[in-house]
Amino acid sequence: MKISRRHFLSAGGGVLAASCLGTPLLTAESNGKKQAGNPLDNALGITTSSFSGHIAPRAAKGKFTLLELPRILRDELGMTVIDLNTSTLASTDKKYLDQVRVAADKTGCVLTNLKMNQGKLDMNSADSAIRNKALATYKQSIDVAAHLGLKWARPLPLIQRPDMKIHIASYQELCEYGAERNVQLLVENYGWMQDDPESVVKLVKAIGDNVAACPDTGNWDSDAIRYAGLEKTFPIAVTCDFKARNLGLNGEHPLYDLKRCFEIGWNVGFRGPWCFEHANKDRKQLFKELVLLREMLQGWMKEAAKVDSHQ
Question: Which domain holds residue 224?
Answer without folding.
Answer: 5-309
